[in-house]
Amino acid sequence: MPYSRIQIMEPKVEIRRLSDLMPASARSSVKLISKPEQAKVINASFPLPWHKERPIYINFDLWRNLTKQQRDLLLLRTVSWLTGVEWFKPNIYLGIILLGFFGGLVESTQGDAVGVLAAGGLSAIAMIRIWRSNRSQESEVTADMAAIRLVQRRGYSEAEAAEHLLKAIETVTKIEKRSSLNFIELIRCSNLRTMAGFSELGVKS
Questions:
Q1: What is the pLDDT of residue 199?
Q2: Measured between alpha carbons, how far is 85 from 133 in angstroms, rounded to an integer?
Q3: Side-chain half-sphere CA neighbours of 111 within 13 A
Q4: Nearest C-alpha neighbor of 74 from the set 17, 4, 144
Q5: What is the DSSP string of 23-78?
Q6: Tens-digit pLDDT profile for residues 14-62
Q7: Distance CA 134, CA 73 (A)
């Protein structure tokens, strides 16, 4: 279907359909919100640890130009990326954050301003590392793979799902009137082409 083809779409109806499509584990935190003023077809901000809700904003005037299959894969891919961000997953960076936090408390009770700044800086560095790891090439490809696994439960084959997601990425670029894909999108598309059977090279997650 050409991306310029006009379809009639009621945002509330589509939101209900997409909410039913999401895995049950995501429905309590992920919220779908109509945002017709945004330039992006679908957008989600990086979730910070103190945010209980993880909103996904959709411009339905643009969204309707995608096929149903493309919309399904794009939505599940965004949900997978959002729910894949784990600030409190046990690892070395979480340990550094906690060490810096409690170290800062100790230093503040002792009135050591330099110690408080040092401890706070340690926590900040660890948080930046967590943020970067969740915006990395690997995390983006992992989100694609998670979406494909989810949609396979609804009867799609892996190759079909990969092709729909690939076409969704390419079509969104046209809808948003961008001249080209960015670097991470190129990596994702290369991997999806392999999964869809279009090429031999890919990126393993």
A1: 63
A2: 9
A3: 0
A4: 144
A5: -GGGTTTEEEEE-TT-SSSEE-PPPPTT-S-EEEEE-HHHHTTS-HHHHHHHHHHH
A6: 999 999 999 999 999 999 999 999 999 999 998 887 778 999 999 999 9
A7: 20
Dihedral (CA of 28, 30, 32, 35) sign: positive
66 closest CA partner among 7, 150, 17: 7
Using CA atoms in the order 20, 25, 26, 29, what is the torsion angle rounded to 10 degrees? 120
CA atoms of 161 and 67, how far apart (whole Å) = 13
* Side chain identity at residue 165, one-letter code: L
Dihedral of the alpha carbons of 190, 22, 158, 80, in degrees to the nearest 10: 40
Residue whose entry in the numeric block shows the structure tokens 């961008």: 178
Residues 6+ apart with CB under 8 A from 186: none
The token pair that represents 14 in the structure block: 């589509």
Q: How many CA atoms lie within 13 A of 34 on its CB side?
A: 12
Global pTM reads 0.75
Sheet with 42-43, strands from edge to edge, namely 30-34, 54-58, 42-43
